[in-house]
Amino acid sequence: MESGEGAGGPGGPNGPGLRFGCASFNQDSTSLALGTKTGYKLFSLTMVEKLDCIHESAETPDVYIVERLFSSSLVVVVSTSMPQRMNIYHFKKGTEICNYSYPNNILAVKLNRQRLVVCLEESIYIHNIKDMKLLKTLLNTPSNPSGLCALSINHSNSYLAHPGSATIGEIIVYDANSLSTVTMIPAHDSPLAALTFNASATKLASASERGTVIRVFSIPEGQRLFEFRRGMKRYVNISSLSFSPDGQFLCASSNTETVHIFKLEQLGPSGGDEAATWTAYVGKMFSAASSYFPAQVSGMMSQDRAFATVHLLTSCQKNVCTLAVIQKLPRLLVATADGQLFIYNVDPLDGGECMLAHKHRLFGGDDDQGEGTESEGSEVTGAVQACPSYAATAALPASGPVTVTLTGYSEDGGAKKGEVIPEHEFAAGPVCLDDENEFPPINWCHDGTGVGQARRS
């Protein structure tokens, strides 16, 4: 669901020739956020043919992290000009709610309706999003220069996943509600490159730096459920993983031109769900024979190929992908580092090559000078494919800011020398924002002097 670039976004905040420093879809893929050289932009993703820019800010330059909380007015921004400070804004009011500073550069920020998680290279800060109280600091975590982590969007099961090693693909699953470690998953032989939870927080997908195999584990047990092979010919850098809203599909994008979609389905019992075909027979034969081969070989034979694919126009550039339901049909969305958003139709029954439904430019015509005709404009490049077979499977239930500087916390929440942190002595109940049914609402921050101050922005 939630999907986004790591620190620096596509190509990093200082990448040459890039129009923006990061791109991220919100938790339910109804909004796209871009960090730009002049600020940030928020787009609504409720229609295929129309891309609405619902907010644009030019107050903070060189934004490399921007995260929106669902469809609320709460947005978190980090800029390369002040990479150790996180700013929290109420963008509809145009006000800053508060900002927090940390000991080192912020590499990633993740949100759900209960928790706000800030990831540094060797530490992770967990806040209560309702009042921004610091609940826990995980110190001396393995070196994580990309800020890789994932936070489940299901606040009832608020799980946090982060690397447990800098040299192999161990995953630590942490309960951000009870503030305790759940399990450690030995997922890959090489270091991790991507992590994501499904919407219900019952599954966790991972990929390593090799990029050849994607694995899916049960949560909280940590048992391996699925293993998908993206390819065998070359190692790639997987930059984005995302489950579909119903958790039945998983998409993966990399620095190649191909985006893969895998289907999470268990094979039916013999003679039941499988057709009596030559392919099925050969599959059973290989499955039976695999027990006689070395584990590496048998594992390779049992891995499923992609259910559907997309071939982008260009390769060797970062992108971020997500699976969403737009206008009651399943879609694959891919935002690329050259400032384009591609929307593809996905056939959940037959898979295959996805058809391009629409292509949008994320920046105005003045920014597009020098681009080829293949990427100009935001007009339809292919008719929307309203395939009737989608309908049966796609319907789914659907004043100045106050600054707090965190100088360093131990595991028990105390300061380096053990004194009590004033921020932990004060908390306020949630106060709803002006938007109807909007959650959460942060308007309680502290000035670090021991006196809590309630703010209504």
Major pleated sheet: 5 strands, antiparallel
Spatial strand sequence of the major β-sheet: 1-2-3-4-5
Integer average pLDDT:
76
Gyration radius, rounded: 22 Å
Question: Tally of extended strands?
Answer: 33
Low-confidence stretches: 5-17, 269-291, 295-302, 365-444, 446-457
The total of helices stands at 3
**Structural class label:** mainly beta
Helix content: under 10%
* Strand content bin: 35-45%
**Straight-line N-to-C gap:** 30 Å
- Rough shape? globular
Task: Give short descriptive properties of this protein.
single chain, 457 residues, mainly beta, five-stranded antiparallel β-sheet, five-stranded mixed β-sheet, 3 helices, disordered C terminus
Question: How does this model look, in words?
Answer:
The chain is mostly beta strands and 457 residues long. The protein has three helices and 33 strands. It has a five-stranded antiparallel β-sheet with strand order 1-2-3-4-5, with no helix packed on it. A five-stranded mixed β-sheet has the order 6-7-8-9-31, with no helix packed on it. The chain has a five-stranded mixed β-sheet with strand order 22-23-24-25-29, with no helix packed on it. The protein is globular. The two termini are 30 Å apart. 45% of the residues are buried.
